[in-house]
Amino acid sequence: MRGFLIDLDGTLYHGSKRIEGADRLLAALRANRLPFRFVTNNSSVSPEEVAARLNGMGIEAQPDEVCTSSLAAAQYIAQRKPGASVYVVGEAGLKQAVAEAGLRLTEEEQPDFVVQGIDRELSYSRVAAAVRFIRAGAVSVMTNPDLLLPGESGLQPGAGSIGAMIEAASGQVPVVIGKPSSILMDYALQQLGMEPGGIWVIGDNMATDIAAGIAAGCGTALVLTGLTTRDNYEHYAKLAGCKPDLICGSLDELQSYILSRIGL
User: Where does Mg(2+) bind (predicted)?
Assistant: First the structure.
């Protein structure tokens, strides 16, 4: 175990509440100089906002330790066409990532790429423009395929639901950046400056976290702190079509396992 890619929602916190042991796990990783990155499919927030939220819960975090699907999407586009024109269907975090990658935000002219994430102020006209641009030749990129996301009143449509509408109308399957795609994980590995061998993905979701870790060639640790529980594990394992290398009932149990593996 040489480093870690750590999921956030359902793994380190629920909503605004820190999950028991999250602060101790991160403190132990820092104390033992084990590198890590926080990896999230959330495309709406900046690394600064993510770090501020974690620090507010008592989990020490720095912006440069955060890898979002927006950052990975912007890099994916910039590597394929530096300075490309991009039409964004999404929120501030995605627009910031696109601009900081040296890409050119456009509204009216035919873009090289259409990149889409969660957009809670989505309009029909914006979807129509995205579809028109894609049908005219723009490459379609989707930050993450999550169909639902938690909200104050329960589950709400996620970026994947918006993407499904655009895909149906445009006839083009988008490039998916976030988990379970390996693109986001490869981006996080690049930020760590490490190869996947010896790197472990920690998460609570079989279909996203664990599947993405396997796709990237990493070890996988499922924590039963969020979506997956002992009672529903077999159900989600069957749906995801994969199994983790390690299952821990709590973050404290995971911390103990990690420390034992490094000889402490």
Answer: 7, 9, 204
